[in-house]
Amino acid sequence: MTAVLDQPSGLTQSVGAFTGSSDVPIHTSGQKLQIRRPQLAIDLSDQTLPRPRLVSAALNQLNRLLELDEGWDGQAGRAISLPAAQTALWLILSLTDEDSAPPHVLPTVDGGVQVEWLVAGNGLEIEVDPSGGGAYVLAVDDSDRTRIDEEIDAHTGTLWPARRYLADISKRLAARRG
Amino acid sequence: MTEAVPIPQPFAAHDRMLRRVFDASNTLGTTYIIEDAVTHQRRPSSAAFTVDADGISLYAEPILIGAGLSARDIADNPLNAVAAVPVAVFTRLELPIAKDPHPSGTPDPNHPRHAAHCFAQGWTGHTRGALKRLRRDLAEASDLVVDPFA
Question: B142 to chain A: which residues are within 8 Å by CB?
Answer without folding.
Answer: none
